[in-house]
């Protein structure tokens, strides 16, 4: 309903404590009055002097609002004359605003994949703080930041002199090809390696390139939730495959799927090592060009009790295996670099897809890392923290037995950065984790990593990121909670 000139100021409510500012508030509320039809087409507004006096604001505030609305087409303004409304409320986009309150936002329409995100536990649903014994991390305090900083500075200085080239820098690809061949038995030319912002980005790229909606994908159960998330985003039907003492079971009955995701070096989360025999079985069961295997070697740098089993990729003679790795565990999480060793037949396609999706790592960080590896700093750092993490693993295992042996049974991994401690007497791990987090010990429920109905209950405990005194203090807190 139209309002009289004297009532206009009464319909405007300005809040001087609002960070939006008086001019912006006045503009929005006048816009709302016009859009709702309270100020009809042809209606003359009070002069800027009169409205400023009525509202108790400066004339400049009112002038700004009039000029802004004139620019948007709501008002016609000329020097020496009061501004006039130029539109009917229905001529603007519906829902332009009301004076009293903002309209309730409509519920957004989401994809089937996005609508399920809130029901997953990846990343950690409770956004736990970084405290002992949070899993999934190395100790950033042990990283040689001064040396890394020098590499970054030199890379930045030379950035302006480098020619624009591939988004995957050649020096880093060559350094990685040599390192992976000697340390993990990976067989790949430098041009098969793509440098990405993370290992998760590598999974996203693989899924986009080889998965068609409706394709069958196998993942470990329990396993890494980020893999299932990436494959479901492309419309895959994801099936969880149970584990035995060697990790992912070989399924004899069903035909091989489009893609199999596994962590054979240290199964996530149990840390189990897949035998050479089991790896060979999976390779024989896959169909070249039809079934792809993704090998995620997320913490393959850390082996303690024996020589590491060569990567599955190195056993593949038919180009069926994607090999995925990351630097966030061995170096520091904020480096934001991962890599993908691609089958030769897919390299060109993946490089194009990498640009289309925008999964590109900063070139100066790539160049700095190439120098860090070439000068021997990376291997020196790994040798030192391997010894450190080995001792921390053993300290955690001994402490669990001493303080919590009656309620927890630890699975001792041959390597990695975390371990599983299974709950005895059928305790519910979700409730236990909640209680521990409230007490200041951060862990993760094994059941939260199950794809379907959880088969096992336990705690995922990190040891690599925590010094022995921190581990001991966390264990004493855990003992008091139990």
UniProtKB/TrEMBL annotation:
Domain HTH gntR-type: 20-88
Protein name (database record): GntR family transcriptional regulator
Gene Ontology molecular function terms on file: DNA binding; DNA-binding transcription factor activity; pyridoxal phosphate binding
Transmembrane segments: none
Sorted UniProt keywords: DNA-binding, Pyridoxal phosphate, Transcription, Transcription regulation
InterPro entries to which the protein is assigned, alphabetical: Aminotransferase_I/II_large, HTH_trans_reg/aminotransferase, PyrdxlP-dep_Trfase, PyrdxlP-dep_Trfase_major, Tscrpt_reg_HTH_GntR, WH-like_DNA-bd_sf, WH_DNA-bd_sf
SUPFAM superfamilies: PLP-dependent transferases (SSF53383), Winged helix' DNA-binding domain (SSF46785)
Database matches in Pfam families: Aminotran_1_2, GntR
Similarity annotation: In the C-terminal section; belongs to the class-I pyridoxal-phosphate-dependent aminotransferase family.
Species per Swiss-Prot/TrEMBL record: Bradyrhizobium stylosanthis
Record bears the keyword DNA-binding: yes
């Amino acid at each position: 309903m139209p309002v009289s000139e004297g009532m206009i100021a009464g319909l405007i409510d300005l809040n001087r404590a609002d960070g939006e500012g008086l001019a912006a508030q006045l503009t929005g509320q006048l816009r709302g009055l016009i859009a709702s039809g309270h100020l009809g087409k042809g209606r003359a507004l009070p002069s800027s002097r009169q409205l400023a006096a009525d509202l108790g604001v400066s004339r400049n505030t009112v002038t700004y609002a009039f000029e802004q609305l004139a620019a948007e087409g709501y008002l016609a303004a000329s020097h020496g004359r009061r501004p006039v409304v130029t539109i009917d409320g229905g001529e603007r986009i519906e829902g332009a605003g009301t004076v009293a309150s903002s309209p309730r936002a409509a519920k957004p329409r989401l994809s089937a994949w996005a609508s399920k995100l809130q029901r997953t536990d990846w990343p950690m649903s409770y956004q736990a703080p970084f405290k002992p014994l949070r899993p999934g991390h190395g100790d950033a305090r042990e990283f040689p930041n001064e040396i890394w900083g020098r590499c970054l500075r030199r890379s930045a200085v030379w950035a302006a002199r480098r020619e624009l080239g591939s988004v995957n820098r050649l020096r880093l690809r060559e350094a990685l090809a040599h390192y992976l061949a000697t340390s993990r038995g990976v067989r790949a030319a430098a041009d098969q390696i793509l440098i990405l912002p993370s290992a998760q980005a590598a999974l996203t790229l693989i899924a986009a390139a080889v998965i068609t909606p409706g394709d069958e994908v196998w993942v470990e159960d329990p396993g890494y939730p980020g893999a299932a998330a990436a494959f479901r985003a492309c419309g895959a039907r994801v099936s969880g495959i149970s584990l035995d003492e060697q990790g992912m079971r070989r399924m004899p009955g069903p035909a091989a799927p489009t893609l199999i995701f596994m962590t054979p070096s240290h199964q996530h989360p149990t840390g189990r090592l897949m035998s050479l025999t089991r790896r060979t079985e999976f390779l024989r069961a896959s169909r070249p060009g039809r079934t792809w295997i993704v090998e995620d070697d997320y913490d393959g740098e850390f082996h303690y009790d024996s020589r590491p089993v060569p990567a599955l990729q190195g056993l593949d003679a038919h180009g069926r295996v994607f090999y995925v790795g990351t630097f966030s565990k061995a170096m520091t999480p904020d480096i934001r670099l991962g890599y993908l060793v691609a089958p030769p037949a897919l390299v060109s396609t993946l490089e194009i897809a990498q640009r289309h999706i925008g999964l590109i790592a900063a070139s100066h960080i790539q160049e700095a890392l190439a120098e860090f590896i070439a000068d021997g700093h990376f291997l020196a750092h790994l040798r030192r923290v391997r010894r450190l993490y080995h001792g921390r693993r053993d300290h955690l295992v001994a402490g669990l037995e001493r303080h919590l042996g009656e309620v927890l049974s630890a699975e001792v991994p041959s390597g990695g950065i975390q371990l599983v401690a299974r709950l005895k007497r059928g305790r519910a791990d979700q409730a236990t984790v909640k209680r521990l987090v409230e007490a200041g010990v951060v862990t993760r429920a094994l059941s939260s990593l199950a794809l379907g109905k959880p088969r096992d209950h336990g705690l995922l405990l990190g040891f690599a990121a925590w010094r022995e005194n921190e581990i001991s203090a966390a264990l004493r807190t855990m003992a008091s909670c139990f």
